[in-house]
Design brief:
Layout: E1 2-7, E2 10-13, E3 18-26, E4 31-39, E5 46-52, E6 57-59, E7 67-71, E8 77-82, E9 91-101, E10 104-109, E11 113-118
Parallel strand pairs: 2-11
Antiparallel strand pairs: 1-3, 3-8, 4-5, 4-9, 5-6, 7-8, 9-10, 9-11
């Protein structure tokens, strides 16, 4: 399994940019997907963007053309560049890693970082 540590959250005005980073450690070769999820107050945690080991990328429709997910070749860092931020992007953002290690599937999460976009 892997351990995840996020950084880069903060407060920004609408239209601004932030870059989130997630540093992974542990069994990096076991990772199949890494991604970013977010959870706004009173709402469920939802997928924002995800990248597979093969390089396939998925975005939730509301962030297409504004957010970009990228990863290092060795899977040790996954970043989320967020541009043209809107107040509705305000949430706690969580890094996620999913994979299979020693025959067991896992779904690991970071501690989360707060992103607040003011209008």
């Amino acid at each position: 399994q892997v351990q995840l540590v996020e950084s880069g959250g903060g407060l920004v005005q609408a239209g601004g940019s932030l870059r989130l980073s997630c540093v992974a450690s542990g069994s990096l070769s076991s990772i199949n997907y890494m991604g970013w999820y977010r959870q706004a107050p009173g709402k469920q945690r939802d997928l924002v963007a995800r990248i597979s080991r093969e390089g396939t990328i998925n975005y939730v429709y509301s962030v297409v053309d504004r957010f970009t997910i990228s990863r290092s070749k060795g899977w040790d860092t996954v970043s989320l560049q967020m541009n043209s931020l809107k107040p509705e992007d305000t949430a706690v953002y969580y890094c996620n890693a999913a994979g299979q290690d020693a025959g067991n599937e896992y779904d690991n999460w970071g501690q989360g970082v707060q992103v607040t976009v003011s209008s």
